[in-house]
Structures are given as structure tokens and as C-alpha cells.
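Researcher: Good morning. I'm working through a list of sequences from a screen, and I'd like to move beyond sequence-only analysis. For each chain I'm collecting a predicted structure so we can compare shapes side by side. This is the next one on the list. No need for commentary yet; just the structure.
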Amino acid sequence: MIITPVSTSSSEGEKTITSLLQRFQAADNSCQKAVEEIIQAVRERKDEAVVEYGRRFDSPNLTVETLQVSSEELQAAYTEVDEKFLETLSLAIDRIQSFHEREMEDSWMQTREDGTIVGRLVRPVDTAGLYVPGGQGGSTPLVSSVLMNGIPAGIAGVHERVMVTPPDEHGKINPHLLVAAQEIGITQIFKAGSAWAVAALAYGTESIPKVDVIVGPGNQYVTEAKRLVSGMVRIDMIAGPSEVLIVADDTAKVENVAADMLAQAEHDLLALAVVVTTDAQLAAAIPAELERQLATLSRKSIAQTSLKNRGVILVAADLTEAISLANDIAIEHLELMINDPWSQVPHVRHAGAIFLGNNTPEAAGDYVAGPNHVLPTMGTARFASALGVETFLKKCSIISYSENALRADSEHIQRLANLEGLTAHANSVAVRVK
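Model: Good morning. C-alpha cells for this chain:
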């Protein structure tokens, strides 16, 4: 049996739950030394280093002159995609755009009777770097990554959006990626991947601009590079393996549950697919359905190994226990395949995204529903949120005192400053009100 269902109250169930609650892992830093060397090389030798790594690992004929995608390549991309793709792309852009427009924050001011004005000024960062993985040598272009990262940056008002993505062995970028980028207003695209692309964005090269924010998924080298440059630039998050938790009752369809587990499991060998169900019969039927559907998948081996090593089916006493457990686990994707999913939304406290009902597969959220698919993993949904417009915004406080207002507050300011031993702070007020 690919997964053996267990009761939450059994000793095996308790062990499984403990493992789920303790699944957080720091970024895999086994490649830290190699990434540090790459970052240093890019800092010192800039374009030369980026091209050198690109030649070694991606495209043997890459040059400094071909590092940036040319206008001719951008134009040619439209001749290599079909109308149906453009139709789907337009739909996805409209949905993601309209959803994220609601996230935009406004500046605000607060005035007091004594003449004091305080407020918050919301401003975008100047530049953002968008990392887009190569997708199996360009054969599986991750168009959704372009949209989910690039659209919120555009709505925020980021003046310069820079996209980096590794070229294929012929030095080409998949035309679907180039078209998607252009359709959302990104034309500054560079043929660079892995840690050297992240380093180039963080420090800048002769060709690749230095940015303020770096977003986008990637392998362990990309993740480690983002971790090492974070603090100097903002990053979206350190993401772990993709994960789903399906809460299901006796109204859930076994084929839907199995399909959504497999959709998660095919990501990679470490993907996590969990079911918490109140129906023991459903739990017993899932393993066979997983086996049946596995036979049709292009990534059967990956999905099968992921489910065998990490897949979980838990049988809970009731829906209250199932939702409570889901909150404790704080999963990236939470699916509620239950009779009345909306009734449980008020009880859900921790999840990256919530998918309601039998007709809402997580895949819809990945592509066209509208909300962002860059979500917190490994239990960090307890305190973290999806990538959004705010990722590309910063807030500046505004403070303005009138003479009367400062005089009224002066005693209080000086009292606290002197208590903290900061007499110069106190004096900066005293000299104004003497």
C-alpha cells in the first residue's frame, strides 16, 4: 500500500502528527560554500563571472553581448506561441491583476488639534528582480512564476522590473516566458540562472541592474543565494517543499482527493501531501485510487516516491479535531472538501491559502484564480503571508510638530530621554522651548 491510513488517536498517528508539527527545516546549506564562492566571483568580476557560470552549466556559447535578451528575440517570441496560449495568458493576467489591485495600500495622515501631523507614506521600491527557474532546460516554462511575481511588482509601482532566467543549451529563453513577461510590461530580461543570477541582482553587474527586492522560486542554490543576500536586499521568503493538507468528510469524492494529493506530490521528492478525514471508508479507499491515477502521470516516479516517503492519511474523530489539527500544522495549501466549507472558514487561523469545496482544486490557485501562489511553507503560515503587492512596498513615517505642539510635549519627551540616559535627545527639545 502506497500510504497506510492511521487514526489520529493511535500511537502511529500521534508520531505522524508530531513529525508534521516539527517539519520546519532551515534552508539546505550543504551548498553554502559553493554559493558563497559564486557570490564573491560575481561581486568581483560581474558580467564576466555570470557568463562564465552560464557557459559551464547552461549554454556553452553564452557571451556578455548575448546576456540580455534582445529586442529581436522579444519580437520573435510572439511568432513561436499560438493563439490559444495568448488567450489563456490574457485570462490569467486579468485575474491576477484584478485580485492584486485590491492589495494596494494608501498613504495616510492623522492631524491633531495642537497642530501635530503624523502619517505613513507608502512608496514602492525602485527596482525588483524576478527569478524564473529554467523548467527542465526550458521545456516546461514556468509562465505562472512570471505572472505571480511580476504583476504585483507592477501594481506596486516598481519603476524597474528585471527578470532573470537560465537559457537552454542553445542560449535561448522559452518564447512563452518572453511573451508572458512582455504582456505584463517586463522587457529587461537576462539569460542567467542559479546563484550567479541572484548575486547579480543583489550586487549589480555591468549589464544586470542592482535591485532592492528579489523574488521567485528556485533550487537549493537559488534558495541559499537568496538567504545569503537577504538583509542587504529584501527577499520574498525561504520556501520549503510544496505541501497540501486536505480536510475531507463523507461528501468528498475519492478521485478528487487522490488527484489533488498527486498534484502536490509530482512537484518533487520532498513534496508533502496530507489528508485528514472524518470518514474511515474514504481513508481506506484513497491508496487504491492513488495507484490507479499514478499510472497515467508523466511524473509518475517522482509522485510515487513522494507519496511513499512523505504522504499521510489521518482519520480524525470529527471535523472540529480535523480543523484544529490543520491549524496546528499551518499548511501551505489547505483544501476543505467538506459538506459546508464556508462554515469552517472562521475557524481556520493558519494556512497559506484556503480552497473551498470539491470543485476547487489547488491547481486553480496556481494559475488563474487570481490570488498569489507564492505561499509560506513548513508551518510558517503561522506568521507569514502570501507574496503580494506589499512585498514591493515600503512605508515611511511622517511627523510634523508646530511650535505649540512641541512645547506641550516637551516635558514628556525630555523625561523619557533622561530616563534612558540620552541627555542630548532631551537637550534637542530643550533648546527649542527655552
